[in-house]
Specification:
By secondary structure, the protein is mainly α. 44% of the residues lie in helices and 7% in strands. It is built from seven helices and three strands; from the N terminus they run H-H-H-H-H-E-H-E-H-E. Strands 2-1-3 form a three-stranded parallel sheet, with helices on both faces. Helix 2 packs across helix 3. The radius of gyration is 20 Å and the shape is globular. The two termini are 34 Å apart.
């Protein structure tokens, strides 16, 4: 898939789906998805989003109906919440689910080619001149009540759009929510307090483009 291609072929793939903006006369067609991709999305959604929602009802149900099973259920939740997960790894953002999410939501990125900051976005030029010296950067996601899937999909592709792999400011507790923490690992969550944000914004970008960029939902 896309993430396994050589960099030159990744840029070619992006060029094939890049085109000048145009006014649409009718609603845009959704991206096609085969049955396997739809099943993958459903299974991922259930594990990452469904499990956190079912945790309390299942716990209450076991307490009332099968109290002898409760300790095993709570032990399983503790293991899911605290087992080690690698942090700030590119591998957490180079997963097939990123491509599936982009297809499911028909992700579209609009780039202003007249603006100096964004004119090279989505082209190999973001890698020229280091491309990573224009930090610190604070991308702002649109406010959202639950989960901002636009911002979530962004982290899977920001390296090819802006040249940066960003951190995401958020509550540290989400890194220990069973199920949800697997999604959070791809967002590279950092604490949202002033001291932590300052530290990560002052971090010099490394060869992978990580550092100096922290995404925030205002």
């Amino acid at each position: 898939h896309f993430y396994e291609l050589p960099l030159s072929e990744q840029w070619e793939a992006i060029a094939k789906v890049t085109r000048p903006a145009e006014r649409l006369e009718r609603p845009r067609q959704a991206c096609p998805m085969n049955v396997w991709q739809q099943c993958h999305f459903i299974a991922w959604s259930f594990g990452v989003l469904g499990l956190p929602l079912l945790t309390i009802p299942i716990s209450v149900g076991m307490f009332l109906l099968r109290p002898s099973w409760l300790k095993y259920w709570l032990g399983s939740l503790a293991a899911l919440a605290f087992h080690p997960l690698p942090v700030y790894r590119l591998s957490s953002r180079r997963q097939r689910i990123g491509l599936i999410l982009a297809r499911y939501f028909s992700m579209t990125v609009l780039v202003d080619r007249n603006a100096p900051m964004t004119r090279n976005w989505g082209t190999p030029a973001v890698d020229e001149n280091g491309g990573k010296e224009e930090t610190p950067i604070i991308p702002l996601a649109c406010p959202h009540g639950v989960l901002n899937f636009g911002a979530i999909i962004w982290v899977y592709f920001s390296r090819w759009i802006s040249g940066h792999d960003q951190y995401t400011a958020g509550a540290s507790v989400v890194a220990h929510v069973p199920g949800l923490r697997y999604l959070m690992s791809s967002l590279w969550i950092v604490p949202a307090d002033r001291k932590s944000l300052k530290r990560y914004l002052q971090e010099k970008p490394n060869k992978d483009g990580r550092g100096g960029t922290v995404g925030i939902v205002p």
